[in-house]
Design brief:
The chain is mostly helical. The protein contains 2 helices and no strands.
Length: 94
Amino acid sequence: MAADSKNTRSQSRLEKAAREDQKVRVHYEVEAKAVAEKTARLRALRLAKEAADRVATDKMPAAAKKSKAVKKRPKAGESLSDWLADQDKMGRRG
């Protein structure tokens, strides 16, 4: 009888574990499905936004190129000290 009772308890424990495992598995699958749907929705939104941005960029006229700032070079006859003094007057040297 003792062995029979022990067998019944272990069988009951195994059945309970199987039920719990099934509950956890279902919960996991539901969450995985929700994440997959959310990812698909966000991917679709991102692709739509990128397409709209691409269309808007194509419609915009090309911006005029900005000329690069030309550095003021010392004149051929101007000494370095004169040039540095001029830079000080313009507030470029600290």
